[in-house]
Give the backbone structure.
Amino acid sequence: MSRSPKRPSCRCSSWMMNDIHVYIHLPFCKKKCDYCDFLSGKYDEDTKRAYLDCILREIQYYGPLLSDRRIRSVYFGGGTPSLPDPSYISRIIKTIRDRHTLKKDAEITIEMNPGTTDERKVKEYLELGINRFSIGLQSANDDELKALGRIHDFDDFLYLYDLLRKNGASNINVDLITGIPHETFSSAKRSLETVCRMDPEHISVYSLIIEEGTPFFEKGAENLDLPDEDTESAIYGMTRRLLAEYGYGRYEISNYAKRGYECRHNLAYWDLLDYIGFGASAASRIGNRRYTNIRDVDRYIRSREPVFEEDILLDDDECMSEFIIMGLRKTSGISLDDFSSRFGRKIREVYGESIGKYEKEGLLEIKDGRLSFTERGMDVSNIVLSEFV
């Protein structure tokens, strides 16, 4: 089903800032990792060119929606956005700059995988105004990288990291995954300490989730040599402590940053601000409307107008639920005044029973006008958040 862009129209959408955030999905990969369930794969050059043309057409299609909005962040995700020639990225950024208002201090991020980038690419990215680089390392141990199905080794990561620093990159994120095949407490600590000593501005540490449809799922968790529950718990606690020792503040369940380097784009998701996604499988949320582009790359290329996998108008209850679930992921939690401004109701009026229950259990707290997890509550966040669905 295709639908023209429209303004949202219920109370939960009346609280809107003029800023918007943009996500670009580039699904190109040298090889799909064994744990990955994102839309990604190996495509020929003709498909890449046709896909880029469709991205540009989609950006133009949504011109009326973006005409009075300032773009505060642009995020190139994938896939491996660093795989195609930088001219692809250049055309997208130029189209955004020419047709829309990209703020002078906009955060522009590109995801990168080691083994897909050289110095020419890095220099061109910086010249294009890309100012944040997110490297998918996942582990500093080569045997674990091989078990994950990654195409790179740790030396490839070091080469890319050094290239970025040598050419002036001043905002680098490194992604790590825990709970992976062959991982031990010692190997997880070694990975984390190795990355911390390199002093990136931001570190993301995600727990492996085995998703249906992936090679890991087909193989079965029992055949993957995963760390046991006690080891995972020990790694989780060590991660929090070690990153704090190295000066990284935890600002979201899986994300840590030096002061001032929190990811502006991801904060937009957790703060339930407006964002728009371009490309196959890209998601958007404008006010109370949430929609996701089709996941099929061929259909996306053939379509003359956006075609959606999902297109939902959320009611007030659904908006409030999303606001709680996303906002509580942040260590700073939720502003009570913000909730009242958006929805015209006080948070205790809507969720008083659930909040009171978890306050008594020491998992939630209200302090300085904000509702947030306690440290113990963050450790069992999924259990608490299920109460607000």
Summary: The two ends are 27 Å apart (CA to CA). DSSP finds 16 helices and 15 strands in the chain.
